[in-house]
Specification:
The chain has 5 helices and 3 strands. The longest helix has 44 residues. The chain has a 3-stranded antiparallel β-sheet with strand order 1-2-3. With 173 residues, it is an alpha+beta fold. It starts with 6 loop residues before the first helix and ends with a strand.
Length: 173
């Protein structure tokens, strides 16, 4: 049977209940304070990280500009029309017509590369003849073509260096 608490015991039970409420409030205040500290610290860290620090010196800006506007020379490659390898189960011939320019960083490289133009044309022709129309689909196909032609032209004109192959026109018929 249930035993009734005595007067002294009721005080102890109420005292325990009375202590429980303040300890919950203390925990809540501590959690809120910790959250506030983290929030303020995170905000301050983000501010310092995103503020960028000091401005660059004027000399540093002046040195960076010529690199962006470097002079370039361009060498025109004659227009080429090349028959492509047929797709499986395809009888009709397919052709690729393109115009390209070679970008070099120095004017003196133009005089070194122009006499080698037959070598460049041969490298382009032999590579492109092995391509299929499906190899040239989309921008990824044209990008791969550009990278491969750049590699081959640099082999053909070594020790001179071509920086980029730029297309003027690319038509698959």
């Amino acid at each position: 049977m249930a035993k009734k608490p005595r007067k002294g015991e009721e005080a102890e039970v109420e005292g325990e209940g009375g202590d429980a409420a303040p300890s919950k409030k203390k925990k809540l205040v501590l959690i809120a304070a910790a959250a506030a500290v983290l929030l303020i610290g995170g905000g301050a860290g983000a501010f310092f990280l995103l503020s960028g620090g000091e401005e660059p010196a004027e000399g540093a800006v002046a040195e960076a500009e010529p690199a962006q506007t470097r002079p370039a020379a361009f060498i025109e490659v004659p227009q080429m029309t090349v028959n492509l390898s047929p797709e499986p189960n395809e009888d009709r011939p397919r052709f690729l017509r393109f115009t390209a320019r070679l970008e070099v960083s120095e004017e003196k490289a133009v005089s070194e590369i122009e006499p080698l133009m037959p070598r460049i044309e041969d490298a382009f022709q032999t590579y492109v003849r092995e391509l299929r129309p499906s190899d040239l689909h989309g921008s990824a196909g044209v990008y791969r073509l550009r990278e491969e032609l750049l590699r081959r032209v640099n082999i053909a004109v070594h020790p001179a260096k071509v920086d980029a192959v730029l297309f003027g026109e690319v038509v698959v018929q």
